[in-house]
Amino acid sequence: MSIALTAECALCSGIGLVVSPEWMAWHTKPHGPAPTGPEEVPCHDCRGAGYILTDIGRAVQGLIDRTMAAHAQREHQADDYRAEAAWRESVRREREERDRDYQIAETRRMAEDAEERARKAELVAEQAWRMRGL
Ligand SMILES: [Zn+2]
């Protein structure tokens, strides 16, 4: 069993072209000058395709259209999610960098404080040593 999705266009017999109405009228009653437009124009029933969709063909076409639309929507959603994930990642990285910079600065400050205290302790020890020597 075969299911036809398309059928030959009855109007143009599958050619896709028909004689234009002006030329048709002139051929039927050839008086006066011939029409200036093209004699053959795209068939208006099949839009120049030469075939039309059967009922089943239209149903399949509808199914394809809906599937494609749903797919496009999912793709669009996936793009949105990807963009959001990238944004979150950049925010996280920025925060990490800020925290690290803060910790480095804090550690440096603590080291400077410790150095300062050591210097003062040394001075106090020197003074004590000198006073004892007197
Ligand atoms: Zn046709």
Based on the model shown, name its key terms.
mainly alpha, 134 residues, two-stranded antiparallel sheet
Structural features, described:
The protein is mainly alpha-helical. It folds into 2 domains: about 1-55, no CATH class; about 55-120. Helices cover about 65% and strands about 10% of the residues. It contains 2 helices and 4 strands, in the order E-E-H-E-E-H. It has helices spanning about 20-30, 55-134, and strands at about 5-10, 15-20, 40, 50-55. The strands form 2 sheets. A two-stranded antiparallel ribbon has the order 1-4. It is rod-shaped and about 140 Å long. It starts with 5 loop residues before the first strand and ends with a helix. Bound molecules: zinc ion. The site of zinc ion has 8 residues, from loops.
